[in-house]
From TrEMBL:
It comes from Cochliobolus sativus (strain ND90Pr / ATCC 201652). This is Uncharacterized protein.
Length: 157
């Protein structure tokens, strides 16, 4: 941020900051709000020194919006959060502004779970044996026909 305080760079930085604040509010992103709040805390004195007075109001409005969205977790900047254990199901946020989470049952089966025993498939045996008898009968007829043709060929030769 050494050369970031020139008027053109400050304008780009201001626009980016305002856009990110709007995104944090629209998507209720606490992590983005925390990051923007930390950025504002570290750079507000330098911005106040280098920015034109007519644009300071834009910075302050955006900073207030960040503080509002960040106010849902008042000590979030001072508490270092640790990641919890991995959950077996995805966490889903419910409600409009509630921070509570509940676990949803996954839509897919867990491959680690034992599958239910597969029941043997029941074939209609009567139909099976009828088809088998028809095939065997056709094979016998074909065999007799071939023997007759073979006998006639032997007579001709």
């Amino acid at each position: 941020l050494n050369n970031a305080y020139r008027p053109k760079d400050l304008q780009c930085l201001r626009h980016t900051f305002i856009i990110l604040v709007q995104l944090a509010q629209k998507f209720e992103s606490l992590l983005l709000a925390e990051a923007l709040s930390t950025f504002w805390d570290h750079t507000k004195s330098k911005i106040n020194r280098h920015e034109k007075s007519e644009y300071l109001a834009d910075w302050k409005k955006a900073a207030e919006k960040v503080q509002e969205s960040h106010a849902t977790r008042p000590l979030a900047a001072f508490i270092q959060q640790r990641r919890g254990r991995a959950r077996p199901a995805p966490a889903v946020k419910y409600g409009h502004r509630k921070v509570n989470f509940r676990l949803e049952v996954p839509a897919f089966a867990n491959p680690a779970c034992a599958l239910p025993a597969i029941a043997p498939v029941r074939y209609p045996r009567d139909e099976y044996f009828d088809k088998l008898n028809k095939i065997q009968y056709q094979q016998r007829e074909m065999k007799e026909t071939l023997e007759n043709v073979k006998g006639k060929l032997d007579r001709l030769i």
